[in-house]
Design brief:
Blueprint lengths: L10 E3 L5 H10 L12 H6 L8 E5 L5 H8 L3 E6 L2 H10 L4 E4 L12 E7 L10 H10 E12 L3 H5 L1 H12 L1 H6 L6 E3 L6 H10 L2 E9 L7 H9 L7 E8 L2
Parallel strand pairs: 2-3, 2-5, 3-4, 5-6
Antiparallel strand pairs: 1-7, 6-9, 8-9
Helix pairs in contact: 1-4
Bound molecules: S-adenosylmethionine.
Length: 249
């Protein structure tokens, strides 16, 4: 699938040469693991799915708070990330956690072995697109397992402002303006932001049946219009969308 330019691609200024190093720098500042994740918006979107403990892989675990959370709940949980710093922070607090420094597009995990695959804001960071990651999730998930995979949401609000976002990004890319703004760092791809419709197509092409698309990361103090719109359509304004999926084939 070609990823339409319509879906806006924010970009980052960074002194890190690869996205892997960028994440590694990012996690360095974290002090340790949380006690649990019950009070997070993500938990609200997945808690009904993860009722029965089983094998669970988190693809792109960063600082492995979720791996610890599921481990304590009796899951056989494993976290995978290619950036080492978050994993090391996790191991310092909880040396017995199962963590793997690896690329989740090539997992050292058997076929059909996971009851759950969780991935939070990770697959959109591959410039080549998410197909390779989803293929690997499909291979390793059991036939009756669940994929819970979130990405940023090109929600209705963002779609309405899209021309401005695209124009802003175009200006940020312009060499002469970058010189004027004294921007010397490389100007790199950071992530895709898909509309719910595009994300649904991506998942279907990868062999996943979408059970439900759930929004999370809503504005803390929404206006009356915003909360009414959200009641009508849950993907009106969330920062992230979580696809709850099963395998089709
Ligand atoms: C937004 S963070 C999510 C971290 C954590 N799950 C959380 O919710 O706090 C995305 C993570 O995915 C990791 N990541 C992105 N692409 C990856 C890949 N191909 N293989 C392994 N890890 C990857 C990054 O290193 C980063 O730690």
């Amino acid at each position: 699938m070609r990823y339409s330019q319509y879906d806006y691609h924010p970009t980052m200024d960074s002194s890190s040469d690869t996205i892997e190093n960028w994440w590694s720098d990012h996690w360095k500042a974290r002090k340790g693991l949380t006690e649990h994740q019950f009070d997070t918006p993500v938990w609200e979107t997945i808690k009904d799915i993860v009722q029965t403990p089983g094998t669970l892989l988190e693809a792109g675990c960063g600082v492995p708070n979720w791996v610890k959370h599921f481990d304590k709940l009796g899951f056989d949980a494993i976290g995978v990330d290619f950036a080492p710093t978050g994993l090391l922070i996790g191991l310092k607090d909880e040396p017995n956690l199962k963590l793997m420094r690896s690329d989740f597009r090539q997992l050292a995990v058997s076929d059909n072995s996971m009851d759950y695959i969780l991935s939070l804001g990770a697959i959109e960071h591959d410039k080549a697109g998410p197909d390779k990651a989803l293929k690997e999730f499909h291979r390793t998930l059991k036939s009756d397992g669940y994929l819970m995979c979130s990405v940023p949401c090109l929600n209705i609000k963002r779609q309405l402002g899209l021309p401005l976002l695209v124009a802003r990004d175009q200006l940020k890319r312009t060499k002469i303006l970058r010189k004027l703004w004294n921007k010397t760092e490389p100007f790199e791809f950071y992530q895709y932001v898909w509309s719910p419709a595009t994300y649904r197509k991506i998942l279907a092409k990868a062999g996943f049946e979408l059970i439900e698309m759930r929004g999370y990361g809503y504005k803390e103090n929404p206006s009356v219009i915003e909360s009414s719109m959200t009641k009508i359509y849950n993907l009106y304004g969330p920062h992230m969308m979580m696809a709850i999926c099963k395998k089709i084939r």
